[in-house]
Write a structure and sequence with these properties.
Helix content is 30%, strand content 20%. The chain has 6 helices and 5 strands. A hairpin with a 5-residue loop joins strand 1 and strand 2. The protein has 166 residues and is an alpha+beta fold.
Amino acid sequence: MRRRTVTAGNLEEILQVTAPAQAQAPAPAAAPSGAAPAPREEHALRTEFEFELPRGYVDEAGTLHRHGSMRLATARDELRPQIDLRVKENPAYLSVVLLSQVITRLGTVTDVHAGVVERMYATDVAFLQDFYRRVNSEGHTRAAVTCPHCEGGFEVDLSGGRLGES
């Protein structure tokens, strides 16, 4: 699946191409009085975000897990670690507990707990901390970057693979 960065200039074009085809059915007859109005189409809130770890988590069996998903955090998710004894003893443990609550899947691992996050490589934990911040503060997984050679600006989606991969 190819990812495409949307800019303001080509947004209308993409919306036209990806819009569902309108059925060419005749206009419906007038609804009888007292009938309920037609339901409005509502936009669903995206609450889960896919990611790919830079290195990957290696489980006890030696299986590498790189793809996963993280859900949006709730107020309870952010308050709960404050009463955790491990966090009280070592405040740096806060991110381990917090990440273990919001990661819903890591490869085939569905029971992601603090022990799993503890055994991740530091680069993956740093990636997940940044991913958590972007998802919960900014509501998306895109980052604006500048090419070091031509100094052109563009966006990358941090939830996908390595740069240059499709």
